[in-house]
Write a structure and sequence with these properties.
- The complex is a heterodimer of chains A (about 450) and B (about 325).
- Chain A is an alpha/beta fold.
- Chain A folds into 3 domains: about 55 residues, Electron transport complex subunit B, putative Fe-S cluster (3-methyladenine DNA Glycosylase II, Chain A, domain 3, Orthogonal Bundle); about 250 residues, Alpha-Beta Barrel (TIM Barrel); about 120 residues, Rossmann fold (3-Layer(aba) Sandwich), CATH 3.40.50.11600.
- Chain A has an 8-stranded parallel β-sheet with strand order 10-9-8-7-6-3-12-11, with helices on one face.
- In chain A, strand 16, helix 15 and strand 17 form a beta-alpha-beta unit.
- Chain B has a single domain, classed as Dihydropteroate synthase-like (TIM Barrel), CATH 3.20.20.
- In chain B, about 40% of the residues lie in helices and about 15% in strands.
- Chain B is built from 11 helices and 10 strands.
- Chain B has an 8-stranded parallel β-sheet with strand order 8-7-6-5-4-3-10-9. A two-stranded antiparallel sheet of chain B has the order 1-2.
- In chain B, helix 3 crosses helix 4, helix 4 packs parallel to helix 5 and helix 10 runs parallel beside helix 11.
- The chains are: A alpha/beta (about 450), B alpha/beta (about 325).
- Chains A and B meet through strand 4, helix 8, helix 9, helix 10 and helix 11 of A and helix 7, helix 9, helix 10 and helix 11 of B.
- Bound molecules: iron/sulfur cluster (SF4).
- Iron/sulfur cluster (SF4) binds next to helix 2 of chain A.
C-alpha cells in the first residue's frame, strides 16, 4: 500500500501520539516499512485490522527449531531477478523409525557434523525429518530420543497418529519441531497439539490447492499461526505446477490460507539418489520452503548446497570477492601473476580456469566495486593507475621474481600506460576470455616472460 | 469461501519453432512452447527439450572418469557420434577444438573432413561449434556450411563480431545460426536483431546465453534465461529463439568435476559429484527455459532424459 492509501484509514487528527508530527508523515513511514501501524492508538478496530492485514507479508516467515533454526518464507517475488529470494529452503534428511537405532544415531551424527566450505562460507544441512514409517509408537519414540541425544538441529516429526505425536512432543516441544501433519482426517487434534505445545504445524492436502486452502483456513481459525503447507509436490510431473500456483496465489492474489512456505518430498517417487537430487534442485529454484531428502551423500549434498547459495544470491547486489592476491594450485615465485577484477563471476571464471588447467599461478584482484573487466575499464576503475596502485598495495614483488604481469586481453590498450606506471615490470597481454587462460598459461606464458 | 481460482497467465508470445536436420537426415523441432517451463496447467509443449551430446574432432583433454565412459570412441569423431546416438542423443554437437590457434590451428579442410565423417556416421541432426575465436569460427564454419547443405546444421558461434558472414552462409545453405552473447538479455536480443536485419529468420536462430556452471555463475545464466523467456512470452519476437546451453563444457571445466585428489572429504565421491554437477546445471537451466542442453557424460544424459520423461508424462 502507498502512504496515501494508508492515510485514508488514519484518524487525520495529527495528535502526534504515534511519535510523528502528522498522520500523513506516519502513513509515509508505515508505507516504507519504517514504522508499525500499531503505533497509532487512535485507530478504529476495523481500520486496524484492515491495515494490519494489508501490511502482512504475502508469505509468512515461519521458523522451526530453537537454537539452530530453519527460517523460511517471507518471499515477495516469483522470479529472483525481480528483487531477490530471501530465505533459503531448509534441507533436511529423513530418518525412518524402521532403521536400526544404531544406524539412525550414526547417520544423525554424520549429517549434523557435515559442513562444506565455499566462497568463504560454511554450508550445512538444516535438520531431520523423523518418520514414523513403522506405525509403531515405541519405535518412533526411540527414534525421537536418538535424535534428541545426537543433534541440536531442527526436527520435523512425521506421524499420522495424534497420540504418537503427543508423546513425541512431550520429549521435543521445547525445541519447536514441525508437526507433520494435519490432514483432513486429523486436523482438529493436530492443530490442538500445535496450540498446546506452541509448535509450527504442517497441513497436508494433496488433492488440490483449493482443498489445501480450505483445510489451512480451518487450522488458522483454530488459532494456529505458524503453518507449512504440503501440496504434494513430489514429482517432476507436479512440482513446478503446484508450487507456482501456490506462490502466485499468495503473492499476486494475496490468498491468505496459502501464504505459507511449502514442504516437499523429492524422494517419494525417485528412482534413486541422483533423480531425487535433480528434483530437489528444481524445488530449490521453484519454490520450496523445506525439502525432505531421503539420501545423504556428500557428493550430492555439496552440489545442492552450492545451488541453494547461487539461487539465493541477491541479484541486485554486485557480487564481489575481496581485493588481494590469490594463490591457485600452490604457486611459487617463478609462476605467473595475472590480474583481473573483483566481480565474482569474473573472479570465479578466471580462478576456475586456472584451477582446472592445473598451472600454479597468482591472481591479483582489483577492487572495482564488482564490475566485469570491460565495464570496469570503461568506468575508469580498471585502468593503468588503479592496477598499479593495487599491485603496490598488495606487494606483488614479494610473491613473484619475474616482474611480469598478465592483463586481460580486453584491456590490451592499457599495456603501455601500465608499463609506465609499474617501472621495471613487463606487462603481458593475456587472452580475452577466461576459457583460453589454460592454453595461454601452458603454451604461451613461459616464452613471453623470458 | 469462494472456490479458489488457479491464476493462469495469458501470454502473448511463444517460443519460435526451429527445425534441425532434415533433407534426408532425421529432423527435430525445438521450441513452440507458449508458457514457462514445466507449467502444464498453463500452456502446451509441442516438443520435448532436446539433449545434445558433445563430441570433439580430436582426443579431448577431459578428466579420466569422463573419458572412461566413452572409451576408444574419442579417437574417431564418427565412431564417437555413433556411440552418442546409442546413448540417446537427440542431436550430436561436434566441437572443432583442433581449429583453435593455440591447439592445432587446423583449418577448413580438416573441419570439412570431420563434419563429413560425422554426417556419414549418424543420421542425427548436427550442431557444429567452432573453437570460439571469431576469425577461426568463420573460417571453419563457412567451410562446413557448404558440405551439409540443406540439412539444417546448427552453426556456432555466431557473435556480434562475425554474424554477417555466418548469417549469409546459413541463409545460402539452409542452416541455423547459434547466436552467442555474454550473459545479458539485451546483448542477446541485439544480436538477434542484427541477424534479423541480415535477413535470417528467427526460425533459423538458436540463442546461446553463455552458460555459467553450478557454483560458477549459474545464477546469472539462470536469470538471463528466465528473463529471455519472460520477454518472449510477453510477445517480443527478438527474444523468442530457443535457448541452447553448453552445460557439459562449463561443468566439466570446474574443479568440482575434475579433481579426485587433494579435495575435502565433504565434497564426496568424485564421479557422483561430477555427474550431479553437470545434471543439476542442466536441470536448473531447463527449469529456467533452456530448450537444448549440450552434455558430456552418458549418465547425465540418462538422468536428464528420465527427468524430461517424467515431467512430460506428468509422473
Ligand atoms: S497517532 Fe494516529 S491519529 Fe495521532 S498523529 Fe499519529 S497517526 Fe495520526
Amino acid at each position: 500500500m502507498t502512504g496515501i492509501e494508508i492515510y485514508k484509514y488514519l484518524p487525520k487528527t495529527n495528535c502526534k501520539k504515534c511519535g510523528f508530527p502528522t498522520c500523513l508523515a506516519f502513513a509515509m513511514k508505515v508505507a516504507q516499512k519504517q514504522a508499525e501501524i500499531s503505533l497509532c492508538p487512535e485507530l478504529s478496530p476495523e481500520s486496524r485490522q484492515f491495515l494490519e492485514e494489508a501490511s502482512r507479508p504475502p508469505i509468512k516467515l515461519v521458523s522451526i527449531g530453537r537454537d539452530k533454526k530453519i527460517e523460511t518464507g517471507n518471499e515477495t517475488v516469483l522470479f529472483r531477478h525481480e528483487k531477490t529470494f530471501y530465505h533459503q529452503p531448509g534441507l533436511v534428511i529423513r530418518i525412518k523409525d524402521t532403521e536400526s537405532p544404531g544406524d539412525a544415531a550414526r547417520r544423525i551424527r554424520e549429517v549434523s557434523s557435515y559442513s562444506v566450505q565455499r566462497v568463504g562460507l560454511d554450508l550445512t544441512l538444516d535438520g531431520f525429518a523423523l518418520d514414523n514409517e513403522s506405525g509403531n509408537p515405541a519405535s518412533f519414540l526411540r527414534l525421537v530420543e536418538t535424535a534428541v541425544n545426537n543433534t541440536d538441529m531442527p526436527l520435523v516429526l512425521m506421524s499420522p497418529d495424534t497420540a504418537t505425536m503427543k508423546l513425541a512432543l512431550d520429549k521435543t516441544a521445547q525445541n519447536r519441531p514441525l508437526i507433520y501433519s494435519a490432514t483432513r482426517d486429523n486436523w482438529q487434534d493436530m492443530a490442538q497439539l500445535a496450540l498446546d505445545y506452541h509448535c509450527p504445524l504442517a497441513v497436508s492436502e494433496r488433492e488440490s490447492p483449493g482443498n489445501l486452502a480450505e483445510l489451512t483456513e480451518r487450522v488458522i481459525q483454530m488459532g494456529v499461526e505458524d503453518i507449512i503447507t504440503d501440496p504434494g509436490a513430489d514429482s517432476f510431473g507436479n512440482s513446478v505446477d503446484l508450487l507456482t500456483q501456490l506462490r502466485r496465489l499468495a503473492i499476486n492474489k494475496r490468498c491468505r490460507p496459502l501464504g505459507y512456505p511449502s514442504i516437499t518430498f523429492p524422494g517419494d517417487h525417485a528412482s534413486g539418489p541422483e533423480d531425487e537430487a535433480l528434483l530437489a534442485a528444481q524445488q530449490i529454484a521453484k519454490y520450496a520452503g523445506i525439502i525432505v531428502l531421503d539420501h545423504f551423500y556428500p557428493g550430492i549434498v555439496y552440489p545442492l548446497l552450492t545451488l541453494r547459495l547461487n539461487i539465493y544470491t541477491d541479484p541486485q547486489k554486485p557480487v564481489k570477492v575481496a581485493a588481494g592476491i590469490y594463490p591457485i594450485n600452490d604457486p611459487g615465485n617463478s609462476d605467473p601473476l595475472l590480474v583481473t577484477t573483483d566481480f565474482s563471476l569474473t573472479y570465479f571464471s578466471v580462478a576456475g580456469e586456472i584451477q582446472s588447467c592445473g598451472f600454479p599461478s597468482w591472481l591479483l584482484i582489483c577492487d572495482t566495486g564488482g564490475l566485469s573487466v570491460l565495464t570496469a575499464w570503461a568506468a575508469g576503475k580498471f585502468n593503468a593507475r588503479e592496477i598499479a596502485k593495487t599491485a603496490k598495495q598488495f606487494g606483488v614483488n614479494d610473491y613473484v621474481n619475474h616482474n611480469a604481469l598478465v592483463i586481460p586481453g580486453y584491456v590490451a590498450v592499457i599495456k603501455g600506460a601500465l608499463e609506465e606506471e609499474m617501472a621495471g615490470w613487463k606487462i603481458l597481454v593475456g587472452p580475452r576470455e577466461a576459457m583460453d587462460i589454460g592454453n595461454y598459461l601452458k603454451r604461451t606464458w613461459r616464452e613471453n616472460v623470458l | 469461501m469462494t472456490p479458489l481460482q488457479i491464476p493462469v497467465e495469458k501470454w502473448a508470445g511463444k517460443v519460435t519453432e526451429v527445425k534441425l536436420g532434415g533433407n534426408g537426415r532425421k529432423d527435430i523441432t525445438i521450441g513452440g512452447e507458449n508458457t514457462l517451463p514445466f507449467l502444464h496447467f498453463e500452456g502446451t509443449f509441442p516438443h520435448q527439450p532436446a539433449l545434445a551430446i558433445e563430441i570433439q574432432d580430436m582426443e579431448p583433454d577431459w578428466p579420466a572418469d569422463l573419458l572412461l565412459s566413452w572409451g576408444d570412441a574419442v579417437k574417431d569423431p564418427g565412431q564417437w557420434a555413433r556411440k552418442a546416438a546409442e546413448y540417446g542423443a537427440d542431436i550430436v554437437a561436434l566441437r572443432l577444438r583442433s581449429a583453435h590457434p593455440e591447439v592445432e590451428n587446423s583449418g577448413a579442410e580438416k573441419a570439412k573432413r570431420t563434419v563429413a565423417s560425422v554426417l556419414e556416421a549418424v543420421d542425427l541432426p548436427l550442431i557444429v561449434l567452432g573453437p570460439e575465436v571469431a576469425e577461426k569460427d568463420n573460417e571453419v564454419l563457412l567451410a562446413v556450411s557448404e558440405i551439409g547443405r540443406g540439412q539444417r546444421l546448427a552453426l556456432g558461434n555466431c557473435t556480434d563480431k562475425n554474424y554477417r558472414a555466418i548469417a549469409a552462409s546459413c541463409l545460402a545453405n539452409e542452416h541455423v545460426a547459434i547466436a552467442k552473447a555474454p550473459t545479458d538479455v539485451n546483448l542477446s536480443k541485439q544480436l538477434n536483431m542484427l541477424l534479423h536485419e541480415a535477413g535470417l529468420p528467427m526460425s533459423s536462430v538458436l540463442t546461446d546465453p553463455t552458460t555459467g556452471a553450478l557454483g560458477y555463475g549459474l545464477e546469472y545464466t539462470y536469470s538471463v534465461v528466465e528473463r529471455l523467456r519472460l520477454s518472449c512470452l510477453s510477445g517480443d519476437e527478438m527474444t523468442s529463439t530457443p535457448i541452447i546451453c553448453t552445460v557439459g563444457e562449463e561443468s566439466w571445466k570446474q574443479k568440482e568435476s575434475r579433481s579426485s585428489q587433494d579435495i575435502p572429504e565433504s565434497w564426496g565421491a568424485q564421479e557422483r559429484r561430477a555427474i550431479i554437477w553437470e545434471s543439476i546445471t542442466s536441470a536448473i537451466l531447463a527449469t529456467a527455459g533452456a530448450d537444448i542442453v549440450v552434455l558430456r557424460h552418458p549418465r547425465s544424459v540418462e538422468l536428464i532424459k528420465e527427468m524430461n520423461g517424467k515431467w512430460l508424462s506428468m509422473t
